[in-house]
Predict the 3D structure of the following.
Amino acid sequence: MALTGLDIFKLLPKTNCKKCGKPTCLAFAMQMAQKKASLDECPDVSEESKGKLGSASAPPIKLVSIGRGDKEVKVGEENVLFRHEEKFYNPTGVAVTIGDDLDEAGLKERLDKINALKFHRVGTDIEIDLAAVVNKSGDAGKFAAAAKYVSANTHLSMILDSNSVDNMKAAIGECGDKKPLVHGADNGNLDGMAMLAKENKCPLGVKAGSLEELADLAENAKKAGVEDVVLNYDGPGLKDNLKGLTTIRRAALKKNFRTFGFPTINFVNDDDPFQETSNASAYLAKYSGIVAVNGLEPWQIMPLLTVRQNVYTDPQKPVQVEAKLHEVGQPDENSPVMFTTNFSLTYYTVEGEVEASRIASYIIPVDTEGTSVLTAYSGDKLNEKVVLKAITDSKIEEKVKHRKLIIPGLIAVLAAKLKDELKDWEILVGPKEASGLSSFLKSNW
C-alpha cells in the first residue's frame, strides 16, 4: 500500500535542513508521496528508513532501457495520467517491423528504408527509435540471420519478437550486445524467455490477452529475476486495448499496483495503412511506451512522430526557436528584413510563407519566451525595447544596406514607438496573418 506524506515524514530526519531543496521535511515528504521527489535527495535519511521507504521512493512506473549508446530508448518512469498535470518525460518509442521471411535483397531494401525514416520539423530532427525483427518464418536460422544483419546495419535499437525460446536464443546470440527487448513471453514459454532475458541482461516483453493473465506473467517474470519488464496487453481490438492501457496506467499511478508498474508496448498491424497510423497514434497518446508498426513510408511515419513530438513537449514551456538572425534562402544586402516572435509555431508559419514567396529574406525571431505575437504584446514581452535589442544583437545592419523593417500587422500600433527607437529605420507594417506575407513581399519589395 502506498505511504502517505505523513507516513513518509515520520521516517525522515525532521531537521528541516533544506539540503533536498525543499523548505521543510514535511514538504519533501509530500513531494515524495506524489512521486515528485526521490529519497536519494535527502542526504541524512537513516539506513533503516531507506529500507522502509524503498517502495515509496521508487517511481510508480519503472524506467526500462532498450539498446545502448546514443540510440538507447528509455520508456516508463511517468508520474501523471494527464500531461497538463505536470508533463510526460520519456517519449514513446516508435518501432518499424522487419520480418525474417524476407530474402537477402528484401531485408536490405526494407532496412535501408527504416534507417532513412528521419525528418526535420519545427527546428527539430525527429526519427524512429527501434527496428523490430519479427520471427515470421518460425525458423531459428532465419531469425538469427535477420537479427545479425539488422544488428550490423542499423543505428537503431532493436526488438526481437518470437514465441519460441529456441529461436529467441539463436537470435539473441547474434545481437545480445545491443541489449534488445526480448518480446514474446507468454504462459507457455515464460521460464525459458525469462532465463534468456536475465542471462543477457535484456528487458523482457510479456504478452497476454487479459489483464489478469498479464499481471500473472509480470509477477512471475519478476520472481524469475527479470528486473525490466514491458507489458503487452493484446486485446481483441483498439477500443479494448486502449481501455486496458488506461487500466494499467491508473493501477500503477493511483493504486500503486507494482505488478503493473512497467511501461507497455503495442504492435499495430492493419491492412489499411491510414488506419494503422491512426491506431498507432491513439496508442501513443494513451498510454503505450512503445508502438511498433508495419508501415514504413515517410507519409505514414511522419504523422506518428509529429503526434509524439506534440504530446511529449512540456505544456508549461512552449517550443521555441533560437532568438538569432535566420536566413531564408540566400538573402543579400537588398533582401527584406522582418521580425516575429520565437514561438516555434509562429516562426515556422512565417518562414513557410516567406519560402513560398521565393524572395530570400532575413527573419529575426524576438525572444518572447515562446509566446505568440499578440500574447507577447499584451504581456509586454514584445515592445520597442525588446525589438531594439533583437535588432542590435542580430547585427542585421552589417548584412543589409537598406533600413526597412517589416513588422507584424497585428501590432501595427507599435510602429510609432519603434520609429522612435530605430531612428534610422523605416517601419513597414506587414499583413496581420502570415498567409498574406507572400503577396505582401511581391508587392512591396
User: Anything to note?
Assistant: The first strand starts at residue 64 and ends at 66. Residues 339 and 364 are 5 Å apart (CA to CA). The chain has a mean pLDDT of 93. Residues 5-57 form a domain with the 3-methyladenine DNA Glycosylase II; Chain A, domain 3 fold (CATH 1.10.15.40).
